[in-house]
Amino acid sequence: MVIASNRGPLSFRRVEGEITSSRGGGGLVSAMAVAAAQPDALWICAALSDDDREVAAGAPGGRVDEAGFDADGASVRMLDIDAGVLSAAYNSIANSTLWPLNHGLLDGLPAYDEEWRRDWTAYGEYNAAFVSAIAEEAAPGAIVLVQDYHLDLVPAGLREARPDLKISHFTHTPWAKPQDFAGLPEDVARAVISGLLGADSLGFHSPRWAADFGGCAAALGIEVTTPLRAHPLGVDPEPLLARAGEPDVAERRAGLRAAVGDAAVVGRVDRTEPAKNIHRGLLAFAELLRRHPEHVGHVVHLAVAYPSRQDVAEYRDYTALCRDTAARINDELGRDGWKPISLEVRDDYARSLATLAISDVLLVNSMRDGMNLVAKEGVLLSDDAALVLSRETGAADEMTAAMLVDPLDIEGTAEALHDALSMSRKQRAESHAALARVAAALPPREWLQQQIDVLS
Ligand code: F6P
After folding, report:
1. Cα–Cα distance list, 161 to 120, 135, 155, 439 (Å)
2. Cα of 119 to ligand 1 centre, how many Å?
3. Which of 6, 23, 28, 309 for a ligand 1 pocket mutation test, highest count of atoms within 8 Å of Cβ?
4. Which end of the chain offers a freer environment for a tag, N or C, measured as fewer CB atoms within 10 Å?
């Protein structure tokens, strides 16, 4: 079995002259770690930084596990793709074109000019590098699990290079609405749809995203014979709770509790990402305090936003906007001894877990989100937190016991926060039990097995 994804299970960094490795982050990586644990699996990923490239170039055949780095026992080949090609494919096409299209963030889209066309060509080269590596590594008839919007052209390329392989592709984001996708140059739109249709099976977290993909194909007059399937990823509570039980999380938890005293906590954890809608979440929290002053002094908003994609200007600007807004709200509404919002922009997994664990209300108000595993993880980590959840997440399909909100509606989100904070212990316990059941349905092992079963 071959797994192919842009980000892999390891990333490298040179610290005081020494190369050190750390685990790649995000939902995709955690889900695929289960597949990679199988003895016959090879995970092919890209070297994403100069340090990654250095390690990949020095490892035999790019096999970083064979160069002495442990990825929890997984076999990992890291592709040393030219830095310019990678940057154009990842930053310009994947993260600045396909990502905003899939998330309905149309304001941030680039102009489809000459420079962008060059980046599109690079996206083709980047996908072709994966096709060659997979074609080289895969045993006859092997299963290939291609992941996400970085690799939309791989299925068709691989089908041509290796017709014997069983290929699936899974999109971890939503899929673009047909009216948004129609804004792409037609040849590019066709290449993306036909590229994916080279697979034997196409997976999405929600039937809504599968339907949008079908709608985009239909609008281009492309017939879809490949099955489009929904496999909504869930969370395995056991390793999550084991990690949350470690001393560093307990220490952060005690620190947070000491800082907030007996105030109720509205918590959230996200990448610093426009699609996560952190900014409107801050505005909604301020609106809650203005509309319902009984919460002033008795509730705090803990937002952990870990840095992401800081090579893309929109992400840097968004992070700065969130910081400024949090500071402004604190100036306007804070009082001696009570700071309404604490926004932490840093990568501290233990602190993220502690924040979710002590939350009374979890806020997930994404503009659009393939699944949003934090909603599921947060519910499993907390004793009885209520969940305020954007309707535009894949998670909202299943987590119907949450308070569902329109992500653009700041007043509606403020009211949902008020309702969640005002729930009785009994109501909270009931909704929490229902949410926890759903959160743990289809954990990575079963999610993966479903996809393998349909291929065989
Ligand atoms: O949502 C798709 C996804 O691949 C997630 O699995 C992951 O959390 C995120 O994007 C990571 O993005 P990046 O690899 O660009 O940091």
Report:
1. 21, 7, 10, 39
2. 20
3. 28
4. C
